[in-house]
Amino acid sequence: MGVELKVEDEHLRVRAARNVITPELQRRIAANKAELLALCQQREAPERARRQHEPFPLTDIQQAYLIGRGTDFGIGGIACHMYNEIDARDVDVGRLSRAWQRLIDQHAMLRSVVLPSGEQRVLESVPAYSIPVLDLRGQSSAQVEEKLAAVRHEFSTRATPPGQWPTFALQASLLDEGRVRIHVDIDIMTADASAVLALQEEWRELYLEPEKVLAPVPVSFREHVLAELASHDTPAYRRAESYWFSRLADLPPAPVLPLATSPEHLVRPTFRRIGARLEPARWERLKERAAEAGLTRAGVLCSAFSDVLAAWGESARFCINLTVFRRLPIHPEINRLVGDFTSNVLLEVDGQGQTFTERAIRLRDQLARDLEHNEMSGVRVLREQSRRREGFGALMPVVFTSMLGLRSRKSDVSGLFSWLGQTNYTITQTPQVWLDCQLRDDDGALLFSWDYPEGLFPEGMIEDAFSAWGELIGRLADSTEAWNERSCVQLPAAQRARRESFNATAAAIPEARLDALFLAQAERMPERVAVIDHGRTLSYAQLREHASALASQLVTLGAKPDTLIAVVLEKGWRQAVAVLAIQLAGAAYLPVDPALPEDRRNLLLQEGQVKVALTEPRLAERLSWPEDVEVVVVADIARGAALPERRGSVTDLAYCIYTSGSTGRPKGVMIDHRSAANTVQDINSRFQVGPEDRVFALSSLGFDLSVYDIFGALAVGAAFVLPESEATKDPASWLNLLRTHRVSVWNSVPTLMEMLVDVAETRGERLPDSLRLVMMSGDWIPVTLPDRIRRLARGDIQIISLGGATEGSVWSILHPIGQVEPTARSIPYGRPMLNQRFYVLDDALASRPDYVPGELFIGGVGVARGYFRDDVRTAERFIVHPKTNERLYRTGDLGRFLPGGDIEFLGRKDFQVKVAGHRIELGEIEAALLRHPALREAVVAAPGERSARRLVAYVVVAEGQAVPSAESLQSFLGATLPQYMVPGIFVHLERLPLSSNGKVDRKALPEPAAPVSRSTALAPGQGGELLVKVTHLVAEVLRRPEVDPQDNLRQLGASSVELIKLASLLEQHLGSRPKLAEFLMLRNAGEIAAYYLARQPAEAPKEAAPATASAVASPAPQITLPLEALGEDEELRRRHLKRTSHRTFSSQPVDAKTLGRLVSNLRPLELDGKRKYQYGSAAGAYGVRLYLHVASGRVRGLDGGTYCHDPVRHALVRLSDTGALDLMLHAKGNRALAASAAFSFFFVCDRRVLAPIHGEKWRDYALLEAGLMAQLLEMRASDLDLGLCQVEAPRAEELRGVFQWEEEHTLLHALVGGGLEWEEGSL
């Protein structure tokens, strides 16, 4: 008849051609439905049972978990699992174990494994499982705590290798007084949180009623996974795909939180949990308030979490990873099924809304729209983003998981495992997750917690942020006030107190005019030298006489307060006369550099509404002048006029300096006398500047550092020394002037000081002993510069970093520079000066917490009036704080508070760029580059269109240093920065271009040459076969019949899953694999082939497979004499597999006796009364010694620390208790390997032993001896089931202290090792 019957979701499905099903046939089928269902099920049962043990795909989330078990991404090398400790009493462990075995029999996923192929499978049979027991009864409390801590560490960091069963682990620790601690660890790839809740309920039932029979689960997780995949070909999925793809271009990144280290450098981290509890009464009040606002309880907590992330993050707009448990309704009993039903939604937080309630409602509505399209997981959304960016989309490592409302089906108890006892410890860890926020009910209360990897965030930051979240949750429960606040997240109390102390700068500095300070000194000491010029020296009396005469003339020309008179003069004594004269006449001076183009000069004169300009005879004739400007020449000889009648006040303008504007129109910064006088008097008092000092006035008059050079010196009776105008860029002449005039105070941008130091170092000269104070400001201070200055200067020299803005009266903040740590990112910005204040605020003008970048705002006496005749831009940059009513200047600079109380300067806001979706601070890369010993200067830019930017580093090599290669610089940066922050192009310059103020002129940096494609070198005879091989492997992974070598991998659909598979195939066929980070720069098969070709001479494949016809190989020489070879029997192959280099080790501890047996191969044997070693040493010197590092807890019977092996006594001499070495000492590619090792071997020679025997060749012979020792250990290690791997020797200098090496000790070679790791389990 052509009628097909089958069972779907317990329903009988009928399929037939049109008109076959008659009404009569339909009635008969309906009448016999039960019998037909049973018959169909009976016939399908064997086939269904057979399929249940076939491999099936991983879900999207499971794939992400599997990738995270590798070390190609940061926060990797770990499994996603949930670990609980429950303290029970009088529990029957045997009965508990039998109940768990019943669960294994009941639920197929408890018998499943993840296969190395990237699939999963339910095993047909597994061994019987019995809960292991650790008996700690009768032991001391210290012993018990130590052993329980070891169990906790083992379980909480556990990861089941692919293919190994079981994926869970349980243990019972027996304690005194009938107490039992139950340890339960479950891999979330086996069962998610909702499934674990159901499991624990069935476990309880089977424990309490051992004879209870559980009904079989009539649907499998395999069927659910396949049904979910099939749903991708439905209209609903296509609608979801369209929804998410339309949002990709504008989807914000994850929260940008402060980090202590790059996630790439955290391999197999330990996770920590911080948690709190909201008691039932307050939790009920919070739920009531949420309902009144039309919000769910989880929605309120998520919004509060988002506000805290915004407070501690760089932006209020970001995405969080929202966990959802998505069970498709493919069967009525789907909720009984155990498996990982986790999916995720990328929830956008836009930060909009004037109150908490408004923001929460916006978040609620966004989530509602997202959940309507949750057929497409967030994992797939990120993959598509990655493909479109031709790189890897940023991870979404901040997770929000609500388990509120998840309850056992048959119990009102919401606490996990609460039927067993009190849970005293819980932790979850998830690869690539930085912060995992979890909510759950607990007997009417709210439990909320964060899990995070140890070492990722700055110390104390997570605790502070979590405390702020808990405080906000409490306020939302207790009152309506927080619901209506704009900035509802409060700083921790300790930070609020530090901010108040930081800005407590009030001091009694006399209010004064700058010219009045000068006149007071001229009255006190008229004959003292005031100005030293190359052609003229003026005393205070002479300077007053010149200035008074000119001032009288200016008064007759209409000078009056708050008008500007231009100073168009080259550097020299006339500048001092001019600025003083203008102020004595009651006006303010406007510096205009005569070297400026005519149009620019005239623009400044026009903007400043200048009617009078002061200049010198030569410039008066040479320059062209606007018709409405009166040009006055500063005379060589004073006319003896009396001082004009004093007029004006401290609030009058002192000067106006024009700075560049982003619109192209300059901005005239108006500074009054009181503000500038506050700055110069603070500096003079703070650093005891007095009449005996001489200040080197190097800065141009149009740069506000010149304000201190002139008025700072004249305020205390000191003198300032002016270089010739032509010598302002000649550091050799500066050095001569410093000596000749015994200069004691230096004030400049850092670049000019660095130029002076370069000259002194090149000549082998010192800075003059008269120089006692160096002040640097206006740009980044290279972290190496202070120590370079100290090496050339007197012992008590003071080096000061100052900062602020022209709008803040020269300086507003300072930091005395002491010893600079070699690893320092930058010199601290410091603390505010007297009567000035500094703030780090967000976009809503709320204070930023410690470590969190924000915009710097200046308050206090130093804040400028505004911009001359420019009310619009004055209103933009000079604001009144809405809460404090304090007038502030918005600097446009970024900074952050450090816990010690100082501000760290982070650079201009416009120096932040986005490259491939990552927000990058260029100053951070520059600071890292400047730590390279071969570099003197470095600047980083990001040229190109927004969608195709690339990082370019411009570097200047230090005197006497070899030019480092781009590869070496990339490797150097990669040790401290994430891969996306490592520039791809390095441009070597003789010097960096400077502006007239001595700052780096970024606009003048040369355009880098276009990079040559890596694949252009692959001619057929130079790697063409390799290209064919790589292209074939790419096609195999992407399941395409063929691919073009130039096709972009991401455009072909390669996600991180496919790239990891490709990396494994490359290692299998070519002997080594690129790190996943390196794939970021390898866009296609051609570039991958070029990558391998470039490394063939220097990096031979490790343990490579035999070359095939398509593999690259050198032409084989003709064999003329066949040689006898050992037979390749199975034992030989086994020994080779064990002896080969091992890059992963077992997590189980190595026994100290086993390690001792291995090292015993280096001890001498007594033969015929003589000591004979098992390896050779030229001339019998034996000058190489073995040093060991033992990782804490990794060698049973041996404490963690450093040791030296005494071969004669065959004993280990303990040197230190350093249980963990800094992984940064290793090359980047070896850090994960070193982290997993149980021990490390270091081969070290003492040249005092070898040099007298071998002379200059001592190192060559030492390397030979070390090689023989290493080979002997490698050959013998396999017999002890130990694995070793040779690694590049770490940086020795950082190891000298922990190993007590002396100057004569040289590190030659290193090995890392541990127990062999084998895959086990039934497949």
Automatic annotation (TrEMBL):
Protein name per UniProt: MelC protein
Molecular function terms from GO: ligase activity; oxidoreductase activity; phosphopantetheine binding
Alphabetic keyword roster: Ligase, Phosphopantetheine, Phosphoprotein
One Pfam family of this chain: TubC_N
InterPro entries, A to Z: AA_adenyl_dom, ACP-like_sf, AMP-bd_C, AMP-bd_C_sf, AMP-dep_synth/lig_dom, CAT-like_dom_sf, Condensation_dom, Condensation_MtbB-like
Residues that span the membrane, as ranges: none
Cofactor(s) needed for function: pantetheine 4'-phosphate
Domain Carrier: 1021-1096
Organism: Melittangium lichenicola
Gene Ontology CC annotations of this record: cytoplasm
